[in-house]
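User: For my dataset I need records formatted as: sequence, then structure tokens, nothing else. Please produce one.
Assistant:
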Amino acid sequence: MITDLRNERSRVSNKTTNKELRHLKALFNWGLKNELILNNPGANVAMMRIEKKSQRIPTQEEINEVFEMAIQLHASIAYKR
């Protein structure tokens, strides 16, 4: 049941699915702790795999362009005052 829900929700994104699964597991754990249920049906449901995205580092040329634009913007603002 929980596995089916997890698989259906994975169409959104694996990160969102894992977040929802963590909330469900916490809810069931609360129910166990308060003796409202006998077992956690989500206990053995595995989280979805999330691919780590590599972080893009700008080149020195791109950094210089940003600084140059900032200097020009600052100069144009200061000139208007």
